[in-house]
Amino acid sequence: MKILIVGSGGREHALGWKLASSPLVDEILAAPGNPGLAEIGRCVPIKAEDMAEIAALAVREKVDLVVVGPEGPLAAGLADRLKQVGVAVFGPSAAAAELEGSKAFMKDFCTRHAIPTADFRVFDDAIRAKAFLGEREPPFVIKADGLAGGKGVILAETRAQADAAVDEILFLKKFGSAGQRIVIEDFLPGEEASFFAISDGVSAIPLIAAQDHKRAYDGDKGPNTGGMGAYSPAPVFTDAVLGQTMERIILPTVRGMQDEGRPFAGVLFAGLMISADGPKLIEFNVRFGDPECQTLMRRLKSDLAPVLMAAARGDLASVPALEWDNRPCATIVYAANGYPDHPLTGSEIRATEQASRVEDVVIFHAGTRRDEEGRLRAAGGRVLNVTALGRDLRQALDRAYHSCSLIDWPGGFYRSDIGWRALG
User: Fold this and answer.
1) Of 76, 111, 205, 399, which is the most exposed, with the fewest CB atoms less than 10 Å away?
2) At 63, is the secondary structure helix, strand, or coil?
3) Is residue 6 part of a domain?
4) What is this structure's pTM?
5) Segment holding 7, helix H or strand E
6) Which residues of 237-266 are buried (b: 16+ CB within 10 A; e: fewer)?
């Protein structure tokens, strides 16, 4: 098989790394890719959002399967475009991707199909939104309706913070067009977890769960980010919770999307709150989480390539049960100073080869580039993802943090408390 991976982040590097290990895969292409993907395949300088060029590349290269990493191209219809030209694609149609593309659609969908989630209201008018806030008790959860790069959620501890968040989104356009509407929902107590399942539009198979850390700084302080680290397994996500999640959330979603003429084929990423009365849905994403994907790919023992192809072809029933490494995995995100609001790019990163020689460590490139002399430089907010396996989570974290300490990069920072919930 020749596989084309669309995207340029750590998630895409992790998918390419895993797919390249398959005996069924002869070649990996990436558009646009990154220096990490360039070490395992061929990178083509086409932006992920350039659907016409992506489709032309897939046809020209006789690609057997396209794996779309980021949500933006999916919401814009890249999977539809590829199917039109006869190319198999792992990723949902634009209609199905609305589960992530519009939080208002997702919440209404949950109401229609009795999927457990927080109570909510949708607003495009700040005065009415603030009047509604006056009827509720803090804390408040306020979300931009559209795609905001994983940063469109504001947790307001006070009414004043909530009013300011409404103004930032609706008036000041903090999240651009993604904030034309907002969703205000009840705060759900409990512990968060990220769960993944693969669907072919009719059925679904479970993957595993992970927990990530959204706040930028230690102690869950600072602004929300796309994710500063992750670990798996998540102790809170027991076998009983897995069964409840599949029965109450994943399978009703697959059936509901099919019934509404939007069959979902791809990976369903359910952001969950695990409460005393079971899991409740916080949000859906229609692609692998980042950095959770990096953690999952390290633990997956089964061949990923036939699973993604079966989902693309509508034949998941032929896939045997997946096998997972019993060892825990931890991922540390090494981010550029100033992330998430104003990341400082361009600084040189040294000693990654030495850092990658730590036992059971793999370093995925997320926001990097090579300059004219071949030196590695920061080119984004989240720059490196340092992953490690261990006999237990403590050892996995120790290895990952030791690897981070060997990287010579004054221009970056990382959280030092990843996994604190699981360690107690």
Assistant:
1) 111
2) coil
3) yes
4) 0.95
5) strand 2-7
6) beeebbebbbebbbebbbebbeeeebbbbb
Q: Lowest-pLDDT range, 71-75, 150-154, 237-241, 322-326?
A: 150-154
Range of the domain at 30: 2-91
Q: What is the pLDDT of residues 162-195, one digit of tens each?
A: 999 999 999 999 999 999 999 999 999 999 999 9
> Is the peptide bond preceding residue 139 cis, with omega within 30 degrees of 0?
yes
360 and 385 in a common domain: yes
Give me the phi and psi of 96, to 5 degrees please.
-75, -30
Q: Pick from 315, 310, 283: which is nearest to 98 by CA?
A: 283
Whether the CA torsion 186, 192, 197, 203 is positive or negative: it is: negative
Residue 291 has pLDDT above 80, yes or no: yes
Asked, as a colleague might, if the bond just before 73 is cis with ω within 30 of 0, I would say no
Of 344, 347, 336, 353, nearest in space to 406 by CA:
353
Rounded to whole angstroms, the Cα distance separating 305 from 198 reads 13
Number of H helices, E strands in the chain: 16, 22
Residue 100 is assigned to a structural domain of this protein: no
What confidence score (pLDDT) does residue 301 get? 98
pLDDT of 224 over the 90 cut: no
Burial class (CB in 10 A: 0-12, 13-18, 19+), 189: exposed
Residues 299 and 356 in one domain: no
- Cα–Cα dist 157/346, whole Å: 36
Residue with tokens 């029933």: 317
Mean pLDDT over 57-77 rounds to 97
Give the tokens for residue 62.
């006789």
In-domain check, residue 36: yes
Angstrom distance (rounded) from CA 28 to CA 305? 11
pLDDT at 236 over 80: yes
Looking at residue 93, its amino acid is: S
Q: Is there a single domain that holds both residue 80 and residue 16? A: yes
Q: Are residues 262 and 305 in the same domain?
A: yes
CATH label of the domain that carries residue 48: 3.40.50.20
User: Domain check: are 372 and 399 in the same one?
Assistant: yes
pLDDT surpassing 90 at residue 151:
no
